[in-house]
Amino acid sequence: MNNLTITRTNGNIPAQTEGEDHISGLLVYVPAAANIPSGFSTEAVQEVRTINQAEDLGVEADSQDWFIQMIHYQLSEIFRVNSKITLYVGIYAKKHTPDFAEIKAVQNYADGRIRQIGVWDGTTAPTAANIALIEAQADALELENAPLSVGYAPKVASVTALQALTLTGGNSERVSVIVAQEGSGTGASLYTATANNTDHNSVSCIGVWLAHVAQAKVNESISWVKTFPSGISLPALGDGTLIRSIDKAVIEQLDQKRFLFLTPIVGVSGSYWNDSHNCDVATSDYAYIERVRTMDKAVRGIRANLTPELGGNIYIDAETGKMQPYTVSHLVTTANAALEQMEKDGELSGYVVEIDEDQDVLTTSTVEVVIKNVPVGVMRTMNVKIGFVKTV
Fold first, then answer.
1. 23-30 and 116-121: which strand pairing?
2. 145: region left, alpha or beta (phi > 0 left; psi from -120 to 50 alpha)
3. What pTM was estimated for this model as a whole?
């Protein structure tokens, strides 16, 4: 019998969101050019707004290539968690001697608009040297006025290997090491399907991390339980070890070492990020992703507002040689604009812009501006006292 079947599809129209805090990158290192999807073979970086677009570029779930399957999984996870993300995807064959210069290449392709980038390197065990190389790329981009935060997803050989690694020696505040992986479902199946069953590649949850960071306001920690559920029921580490099978003391040690992983919470369904650590020392002002992102947003906004003032006139009081109050007021108001909006949006607790009118601008042609920001706090611990009493 004749028949016409029509299948309705969903997710072909990219959702939109305001601002640019959601603009992100995903960088994937594959072993060889043969593992690169067809749509990335000529141009290594592509803007991808939906999973359908990714599939049109050759990133197919049923590919015979494990790495292409893995990339499809990461992109599916990203769009599952955050459909409003703007995403630039770069896929490169791995260099014999890595330098992570591809981070800069993806950022340059996006004209410096990327705020956070996930780097999948699941065939390579993490080293302090590689973390330092990634930080160097991020630091160079900061100097070029294109700052970003990096989530690095390396290979996890074992829990013991993670315990032996120190992340914070280089004060790498722009790098976070993601060791989370799905303990069931597609992520676990991909891990098991790695060609050599004695030496698996880590699949990672880098897609979930990237989606959450892009979804969060710059002041928000991705460990906020009510706001950032992972949607992963059985969390594991990148070596397949289930979190629930690891001793609590070891979990706490991994947290203190500043790794990022997903963990269940008793009484709450699902799993959640243990924190928002980066590879800076715990006592630093920039020890958490949200602190770095908040300052990056402030710096970008201040730069955008003050740069047009360069080369402009500075009026001087003819009697005192000081800057005219109205000139100081104009510059303060201009610098304030971005910070005022951030405070209105709840991204800063407060701020002040100070310009000393006694500066000798006629001699130096330089105006010194001091800006002080009060960040938004994050409640990482709550102590509750409870007991019985005779009366209340």
1. parallel
2. left
3. 0.93
